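Two folds, back to back.
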Amino acid sequence: MKRVYSLMAMCVAFGMATAQTLKVADIDIKPGDKANVELEIDVNGVDYGAFQANLQFPATGFTTTEETTTVSTWKNGTITVGALKEGKTNIGGLSTSDSPMPNGVVGSFEIQAASDLALGSYDVTIANFEFINGVSDVKIADVTFTINVVNSYSITLDEDATDAPKAASGVNVTVKRTIAA
């Protein structure tokens, strides 16, 4: 019986020692426009069925869609974001079956910049992010990303890239490559 408990303790310790991560790319948005915030995670081999966190935006200038289930690439997973109140809201994700969160972009939610929002950079913090599986829940360090309010969009092309560049919503991009012989 001691062996079983020792093995369980090692598994729990290993699960807590792994480094789960959350990444959110900086976003460019024009005043009055909407943009998607993508949540990219690495669960490092641990099965998590849920997450929760707090979003801290600047006090004014941005909105989220009230209590909306967002786009999710997580099979049978839903992500819900509350309406911003004084720049704060909650976000949570939950599997509606036994499907664990995948690595990569797990989903996104939409924000909108006020039409009179001043151009500039605004930091947003995702605080108290917790991966949940009921056995070895893990809280990670706060993650901050920047929303750049701009008057035009720019796209940087990498000539060595193998994927097409991502464009802002509503922007069509055609990529042509010239190869010197």
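---
second:
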Amino acid sequence: MKQILDQAFEGQKKELTEQASRTLKAQHKYVMEQYGPRMSGIYNTREYRLADLVKSIAIWDGPACQPAHIPESEKKGSWVIDESKLQKKAEDHAQKSVDQWKAKIISKLGNLDNISISKLDGACGFYITGDRDGRSVEINQRMILNFRYSTGTIFNQFPSRIYVDGKSMSENKYKEVFKEVA
């Protein structure tokens, strides 16, 4: 099953990279609109971790040091997206997403026989069918990309619907049916 999942998810990396890149750019834009090109005052807010996110994908384009007596409105420089840093962070996130998604499916379903994977809609979901202990198993697995402001990180959630012999059930019920430890 792992080999089949590896093949299916390999094709998702490009879409996941693009999705992460769009999300990171949107967060950069938000910070620039809210706090200005120098992120003035962001460290005095609950969104201070966004500054770390912006710095991880951007470079400072301005003087390294400016005298304190210059009014804030006259200071020069801004945090500009560095495409190579952005691409690396997005690719790293895509690989992490693929690894997490595969692990989540395996932990939910265990080892299936006669597995078949159909793409649902781009980087967001799969429909997986197979057999386990002579019973038909199906899962509609999705991935949702979210942003956690408290840590300044993007992360994934993996909601799914599991069916055994056409009957919907929770992950815990599924494990109970197949005598697994939840």
